[in-house]
Design brief:
Layout (H helix, E strand, L loop, with lengths): L13 H7 L2 H12 L3 H14 L5 H22 L4 H27 L1
Helix pairs in contact: 3-5, 4-5
Amino acid sequence: MKRNNIDPQRLTTPEKCAQIIPEAISYPAQNLRNLFELPVVFYALCLYLFVTAQVDAVYLGAAWVFFGFRVIHSAIHCSRNIVTLRFLAYMASALAVWFMVVRAALGFFA
């Protein structure tokens, strides 16, 4: 900020930061923020499944699919940021975690 003569007071909101900071620099920050959205559901679900001793091969497979596509999503987001590819990776990971949620809910209410 000193090198580019940016007044810190100009960065009081994310919107103001986006106007000043180049996109290539803001991608990793946006990706980190994105990692605290859908994955929180995944983390809570994993804890629930572990505590209730419901983990099986199907849950493990879906968890690895979720993880793999989140890695791909992050790699796309922090490099070329091709929105269509990033969206497809996000949707694949979202479908995996929501499959796990629905399966756990069906097991809970059964």
